[in-house]
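Action item from last week, closing it out:
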Amino acid sequence: MAIAAETPGGSLSILSPDFYDYDWTPLSSATIVDDFVLVRWPDGVELKAYKLWLRENAVGVGGVDRATREGLLDPADLDATERIKAARVATSGALEIDWEHEKASVSYHPGWLRHVAEGKHRADAWVPSQQSWTAAEWSAPPTHEAAGFDADRVRTLEPWVDDLLRYGIARLRNLPVDLGTCLRVAETVGAVRDTNFGRTWDVKADIEMAGAADTNSTANTNLRLGPHTDLPTRETPPGFQFLFCYANDAQGGYSTMTDGLAVVRYLEANHAEHFEALTTLHWVFFNRGPGIDHRWSGPFIDLGVAGAPLTLRAFYPVRGFPDMDPVDMPRAYEAMSVFSRLAASDEFQMRYPFEPGDLVGFDNRRILHGRDAFTAGGYRHLRGAYVDHDEIYSFARVANRRAASVAHYRQG
C-alpha cells in the first residue's frame, strides 16, 4: 500500500514535505536510471531525482516528520547502498517507490515534484527579479498609497514589498503621522534588526540659517550627506532600511537615492580596471565611537558568492584604512573616486522631498542614500529601522504564493 493521509472527504491525499498546497499534476512515467528516478509529465517536463534525496523526503517513514515537516535523517545515517526496487506511477498520478528496506511503498506528491522541476524551490523563486534603474527611469521612488495601513497592514504592504525587492526602493504615502508608525511597518514585514543605535533611531535636524545645529552627527546638521550605505563596519550590513518622516518644514535637504546596482553594471561594462579594483581590493571599515569597536575588512563592492545579495561598503565616515599592498593604493583611491562621482551624478541619482506620513524603504546594501544641504531654517525629524533581507524575502514569498494560489483557484 502507499503511505498517505486521508482527507476528511475520504479521498487519498499524498503529503508533501512542507505545508504548501500544490496543484495535482499527474505523472506520465517513472523510470529508474542507475541511482536516480526519472519522472516525466505529459507536457514533456521531467525531473531526475537522486535516490537519497527521495529517501530524505519520504514523509512519515523516517524521512520527513508528519507533524513538523522537517527532515529526520542525519546524513551519517543515509545508506548509499540501499536500492530502489521499483518506481512507478500510481493510478492517481503520484510517484510510488518500493525501497529495499521498507515493507510498504512510499508515495510522492506529483505537484511537489513538479515545483522542483520548474525551479520554484530555489531561493530566488516567488520574489521579483531585480531591475536596475537610473534617474531617467525614476525621479522619485516608486510610490504606493498606505492610507489603509492600520486596517489591513499585510495587504497594504504586499505590493510595496514587491517593488522594494524589484527596484531596491519604494515609498509609502499617507501613513499615520506618529512616531510608532515606522516600527509598525517594520514589524509587519519581519523581525526588526537591533543595532547599537537601537531597534529604531532618529535623525533630527533643527536648522538655522546661521549654521548647523549643536550635534556630534553630520546627519543632524544642515550639511550635505554624500551617497552612502549604512554600517559597512559589520560582517553583514543591514539588509533594508526604512525611513519615516514625522515632521519636515525645512527648506532644501532633499533626500537622494542612487541604484548602486546600476552603477556597478556601468563600471563593469565601461571601466573594467576600476571594477576590478573595487571588487578585489580591501578596506578596513570601523566605528570611531567611544565604547564601540565594530570593524570589518572587505572590498568597496562586495559581490559575495553566487546568489548572495550585492553589498556596497560605501560610507566614507567609517572607511578607515586601506587593507592592501601599498602599490595598489593609488588605483584603489582612483576607482573609489570614480564610483562616488557616478553615484552622485544627475544620471544616476534621484532627488525628492520628504513629507510627513511618507516612509521610504530601500535596500541598504544596494541603494546609496544621502541628502542635499538644507538651504534655510526649519525642522526635520525622521525615524528609521532596519530589517534584514531574509525577512523581506520571506514576506514576499508567502504573499506571492498565496496570490498565485488564489488566482489559480478563481480561474479553475
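Closing note: The chain is about 25% helix and 30% strand.
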